[in-house]
Amino acid sequence: MTQIVNPEQINTIFNRRYATKKYNPDKHIPEQDWQAILTAGRLSPSSNGYEPWQFLLVKSPQIKADIRPFAPGAVNSLNGADKLLIILARKGLTYDSAYAKSWVEQVQGVKYDQNSPQSQGFKAFQSQLLKLSTPERLFSWTCRQCYIALANMLTAAAALDIDSCPIEGFNYEQMNQYLADHQLMDPQQWGVAVMCSFGYRAQTIPPKKRWPLNKIYHEI
Ligand SMILES: Cc1cc2nc3c(=O)[nH]c(=O)nc-3n(C[C@H](O)[C@H](O)[C@H](O)COP(=O)(O)O)c2cc1C
């Protein structure tokens, strides 16, 4: 298969991605580009393919105003990013959950059977290999997968010459409470994994500062 992008273009895309501190509030992402960024999230890999995420695009100015006090790391984004996205991670995703059943039947299009080799294999994977023995561990595992979707969306945006910022700088308890209180999220099923913003920068990108490869890459 021919290369879709060459190594030099990969370097360009990754050097171009920058956690944007100052956005131009007057520039808006074309709908087609936004859909492509969402596709990067939607098609991201996840454990067993379960897609343990939801993407909430915050359009309401009221919600943005409400979360500002407990989201200091999002203030730059709230001040001018075109899009603010909250990524929710699924809770309680076990092999025998109602969600697993719905995913098997509706996405994979096969009959669910909790005694099938697939279901039992996934049960063993979760309990024996990953030891996801508590709700917290289970949630942490789905959160980790949400970060894959996050990373893919950031990279897709960079490839489209769109800026972005991952955001963890908010009070998780208050954010979860807010979304639950406003019926924007069922706290039994979901918790906030991370947020991110997208738009166009109003600043120049500083050169990347990173360890050299030989500090972080080892062949064993
Ligand atoms: C998980 C995660 C959370 C982050 N949270 C914030 C945040 O709340 N606010 C912010 O301005 N930047 C945030 N950042 C951006 C990082 O500070 C930034 O990625 C890092 O300094 C490297 O810079 P670069 O992304 O421009 O290369 C976050 C990055 C990651 C990956």
Describe the structure.
It is a single chain. The chain has a domain at 18-93 and 141-205: NADH Oxidase (3-Layer(aba) Sandwich). It has helices at 7-16, 31-42, 61-67, 75-78, 98-107, 117-129, 135-159, 172-181, 213-216; strands spanning 53-57, 83-90, 163-167, 190-199. Helix 2 (31-42) packs antiparallel against helix 7. Strands 1-2-4-3 form a 4-stranded antiparallel beta sheet, sandwiched between helices. It has 220 residues and is of the alpha+beta class. It is 43% helix and 13% strand. The structure holds flavin mononucleotide. Flavin mononucleotide (FMN) is lined by residues 18-19, 73, 76, 165-169, 194, 208.
Concise account of the structure shown:
The protein has 9 helices and 4 strands.
Distance between the termini: 30 Å
> How would you characterize the largest beta sheet?
4 strands, antiparallel
Tell me how many strands there are.
4
Helix content: 40-55%
Class computed from helices, strands and strand pairing: alpha+beta
Bound molecules: flavin mononucleotide
| Main sheet: strand order | 1-2-4-3
Question: What is the secondary structure topology, with strand pairs?
Answer:
Elements: H1 7-16, H2 31-42, E1 53-57, H3 61-67, H4 75-78, E2 83-90, H5 98-107, H6 117-129, H7 135-159, E3 163-167, H8 172-181, E4 190-199, H9 213-216
Antiparallel strand pairs: 1-2, 2-4, 3-4
Helix pairs in contact: 2-7
Flavin mononucleotide is lined by residues 18-19, 73, 76, 165-169, 194, 208.
